[in-house]
Amino acid sequence: MPVRNTSLKKSWILQPRAAASRPICAPWKLHKVAGQQALQLAPFAKFPWLIHGFSTRHGGVSALDGQKLLNLSFMEWDAKENVLENRKRLQSTVDAKDLTLVVMTQIHSDVIHPFSTVPSQPRKGDASITNEPGLLLGTQTADCVPVLLVDPRKRVVAAIHAGWRGTLSRIAQKTVGRMQMEFGCGPTDILAAIGPSIGPCCYEVGAEFVTKFAAQFADADEYFDEARTGDEPNPLQWLNMKPPGHQPPPKNVHLDLRKANRSQLVAAGLRPKNIYTSDLCTGCRTDLLFSYRKEGAQSGRMLSVIGIRKPQRRRRPEIRCA
Question: How many Å apart are CA 188 and CA 193, to the nearest integer?
Fold first, then answer.
């Protein structure tokens, strides 16, 4: 696909300050329970059998720089017992105390695992699917895009971790295909929640990313503020009399991973009206969320979870003798 050479900034690229000032608006809301909180989506909450939520950085027992944080991944700077307690707190917040959490070892891939039982050892991959009540699928992020899917007709759910590598490998689109293959799901029945992630305001990448994405996606130029490859002629080398190869490196561009994953879901057959995208940027909102890019190696990790409630057992009525 030919890449357009343009220096015009696209209007959807927000400045970080503007992105940080955005409130949490419907259909998203912060669900709060006893000092704990999780971001939830109203269209998902209307299904009584469905459990879901996107964690924030608040309400945990992990200690870092004098703060108590809800870190949900096993990090070098945090104790294992803290992470386990934090996970219990998140499950309590989203009313999933009786579900078993399934979290994979994420490898920035397009590997997808369907689960019918809890694995004896963590699987390596970046998307999980189940139709089994009692399993709570989780994906860990601190800038990457978390995507939760639900087919309310078939009662199938999925959790996806989409960094730039997974996005480039079409993991969101492939997960929808796997739901069709494994469970007979119809894409037009599926609802998607694209959770908080680093926004185009803060996600600066090399100009070579334009080439990487343009090789895979026909609409790739819509993911970037400037569709430059870095190979365009640079007039500065003649103006400043520097020989070729000594000019400044090409300027970086801004990438919208959320838009790229939304485009994949539409390509997979989802109705655009059934795809809900949070505009919370992890880079702008470090007051609420974790961001590896902004905080470095000591950033915590958030957990996005989705699962199917266990069926309620009906109590037999007591028979009293006269």
Answer: 15
Which H or E element spans position 314? none
DSSP string, 228-272: --S-S--THHHHTTPPTT-SPPPPPEEB-HHHHHHHHHHHTT--G
Residues 6+ apart with CB under 8 A from 143: 163, 197, 198, 203, 282, 283, 291, 292, 293
* Residue pointed to by tokens 């057992």: 313
Quote the tokens at residue 133: 């009540």
CATH classification for the domain delimited by 20-204+269-308, as one of 3.30.70.3270, 3.30.70.270, 3.60.140.10, 3.40.50.2000: 3.60.140.10
176-232: per-residue pLDDT in tens?
Answer: 999 999 999 999 999 999 999 999 999 999 999 999 999 999 999 999 998 665 554
- Predicted model pTM: 0.89
Place of tokens 């037999």: 316
